[in-house]
Design goal:
mainly alpha, 20 helices
Length: about 475
Amino acid sequence: MIEGLIYFSPMLILLIAVFILMFGEHEEDEQYRCFRFSRIMLLSSFVLEVIFYNKPSILTLSQGTRFTLVFESLLYGSGLMLLYLSRKWFTAMHRQAYIFCGCLFLTLMFGSLLVSSTNLGLTVGCAVMLMSGNYIILRDSNTQKDSNISSRIYLISSLFCALLLTGAAVILRLLCGSLDYEALRMYFDLNQSDIRLFAAAAMLIVPFLFLTGLAPMHFWLTETFGRMMLPVFVYFVLMSGTGGWGGFIHLNIAVLAPLAAYFKIFYVSVALLSIGVGAVGACGGQNIRKIFAYIAVYNAGIILLTVRRFTVNALNAGFGYMFTYLLAMCGICTCLFGLKRKGEYLFMLSEFEGASQKRPYISAMMVIFMFSLLGLPPFSGFLGLFSALNYQALHHHFYQLIYLLIMMLVVGYAFLQIVRALYFEERKTTFDKADSGIYTAILLNAVLMLLIMILPQYLTEDVRTMLETVLQ
């Protein structure tokens, strides 16, 4: 019992942090103390998570592997970056950050459990709690009428997804008699012709497609965040999506693998729709956060198109693309934190006009990160895109490959509009002085991208070995 409690200590630290941040009594204008406490608790939990990543705990419903540690590392890394960049804004604007930090810990806790779960009941509970945390942070950040409307739409959608997850759990519990992943996979393998299993599998799949922002369930990501404050935007683009992808991939590997061939066409259709909607949507907006929200939909489509078979090769290529995409998006979000006026971060593309004249370093790095996100050589994003394109070519998916290349040109046009605003328009906005921490974060991000370009084997062969071990 004591040994299990020790192994469970990473989650216990996160749980204690959530209660202290969201339910404790706090003094006003103590944002520095809040973020310092959050960083200490996050780092403590992550260190213990790395040490005990494959140890059993008092929660026998989950099991850590190297695969789960990869997604947990992405979650913790994104959370640490978000805490580091958001502190100055909350302090300058005298905004309470306790709920924001509390929801961040909720995402870390339930996202980690989601990707390591071995029981469908735990998966359902974690997914519902993850979406509940998303709603809480949306409600706390709403300051305008249109944001309130969007958050209500999101709440309705979250409840609908929770209902689907609960219904699927009930159906599978009645059919299989167990919610254990191993028992469910065996039941799926022996009863592939049972139509009720397809209905239950669809109920499981759809909410995860919603969480990851795939079309046609992308509206909450593209419409809600048009006027959302930047820390919340980054929270959803990086953390919520990463947790959703971890749970979705793990569920398909551990439970739904016997039905992979039947869902292949469905996954391909959703992926192609997401790529098209994301690419075209990015070209039609003047709100830069909405543009990158559509880019997130576009990239989610590429990830699904790559991993849809859930084999070692597919997951290896998909993970490579996901890692470089998240790294480039982290860089872009950091640059957005460095461009503000009168303490407020900028929204409209017109507000970025002439930024290179006043903030040349941030503007140049933002262009580099965008080119990496597009997958252009010699930037690190090319490695991820090449792995995705190469996988399509090796499996003779030439029509999908051509479609993807065309949509890349469409996304490139959207990025050129941002480049035009940064470099070829007269400056109309007076930019605040950027914090020194912004430059440090951008430099660290660039160094990490450079290391990936120099040592690409850490993105390919090592990941392949890990996946082969997990899927044995």
